[in-house]
Fold these 3 entries.
Entry 1:
Amino acid sequence: MIPQDVMKQIQRIHIRTSHMVNDILAGQYESVFKGQGLEFKEVREYVPGDDVRMIDRNVTARTGSPHVKLLGKNAN
């Protein structure tokens, strides 16, 4: 049998998660995540003048030479 104090916590969690969003503005909010809003396109080798913030650390570590991410416009 589940202790009564644990059961109360379970019921409280259930009440908080059972709320259904039916608002017309649901999902229309500004994201707290700041970024360029672009999707990844491809990776190419770094050339002087490229934005160092776009260096792909994983590819750079794997290949041993710096590579940068090229981005395209977001599909949304």
Entry 2:
Amino acid sequence: MAVARRDSFDCHALSFDYGQRHRVELDAAARVAQSLGALKHIIVPINLRVFGGSALTSDLAVPKAGVSAGIPVTYVPARNTIFLSFALAWAEVLGSSDIFIGVNAIDYSGYPDCRPEFTEAFEQMANLATKAGVEGRTRIQIHTPLIQLSKCAIIRLGAELGVDFRLTHSCYDPDQKGRACGACDSCRLRRQGFREAGLEDPIEYISENF
């Protein structure tokens, strides 16, 4: 969102309450959207727990032994496809041709829906799937400004653009107070990124021993 604002876009923010165990991220999303001046922030309820299949939407344990090789159990089946479909619907209502998503294909957990091939294919589909696209009134573009950046580079870019990282949340398995576990893949990648960027991570972790 900070990148979109830098590039002079008016921003509408979209988040999803999909049954994730780390639902505290929705509070963080609201804080960030407000701090960056979103014109509107919508939280859409979708119950992906009815399908399960992921440690984030079922009772499977979140891995904490180190960054996983291959596609880990924290992968939520078709999540970004679902999210982008909702974003596409709202974009058509708004008359917008630009959708931003913060996927990353370098410092990530191997998720197939974070790759350039996926977002490029979705963009092609989006322009075949909407009334606005078929009538030639707009051409949807999926923007992925973070996709080829390391976690370190993302953090440095955020700092340059004035992102208040105290408002953010990354952990897959926070405690009841919303504190990050410090050991899941997402925490490890975040902490490594801050270390490499030479910046202090301002959020609170349950454990500092990782």
Entry 3:
Amino acid sequence: MRIAVQPEGLIERLGMALGLVPTPMGDTWCAQKLARFIMASTRLGLFEALADGPKTAVEIAARAGTHPSATERLLGVMVTARYLTFDEGRFALTRKTRKWLLKDAQMSLHDNILFQYIEWKLIEGSEEYVRTGQPLDVHRRLTPEEWGLYQRGMRAIAGTNAREVVQRTPVPNGATTLLDIGGSHGYYSVALCRKYPGLRATVLDLPQAIEHARPILEREKMGDRVQHRAGDVLQTDLGEGVYDAVIISSLVHHFDDATNAALMKRIGRALKPGGSVSIIEYIRHETPNQGGQVAWIMNFYFALTSQSGAWSFDDMIRWQTAAGLRPKPSLRFQTMPGSGIQSATKS
């Protein structure tokens, strides 16, 4: 998937075809403002004000506690971005807004949109990172309040592709033990345990992550089968021949190549014979000429905010092979552009 400037109407299409349109303005000046205005509409509750039906700008402002005229201007932007419709003086939610941005929607990204206020500040360090090569180490910078929003934001993303993750993750027949490394909110484990009735999961993550993820997991009412374990995976003993399956999601981008290779060997020892390990991540192509803009954006972002970046399928296969595992075919997700899963089994 690419983020691109799209023309509206014949004149703009011709202008772009002839190279007359200053597209960098669209990629920066317009994109920056649109992103922030979507965030503001979410934070101010403008979408929530329309959950029960169409309203005028004055009615929306009254419900959200905002200024009527300023609200109407922001609502107009949301119409042009197709997050709202406008008909006979009343605004209404589009299908995508109702699905993705309402707080209580099944696949809501509401909390992730709010977490982007924190990310907005983080990316201000981009220039300094490029100058010095020193990352921000975001996990050490987060306040307790930000940790809570971080966990809720990650849970929101997991809700969008959990079904596909479950479909793509190999779980051996009769499996009873699953280790979810860095799983915090535990939603992937919950989804897998719901599919496999005999499965029980341990979610291993940092203590500060678990502190704020525990209430999220408790809402799933799966406490008898999905439980947290506090610890740093780089220091915690994973055991030997303990688990039928291991998933490691959105974590290897924090570690360098040698660390990931060593971790995969420890995971290999922790697996039972016939067990499987699955890495779920944004997947970088070997070169930017091959495309994959989202993953290359995340490659830089992860390097800025942590210590490493996005890895390729070939990198993951190399770690798995060196650990004595048998890699399975690489798979890219349809529901989360730029991401995929690389699984392997233990003989």
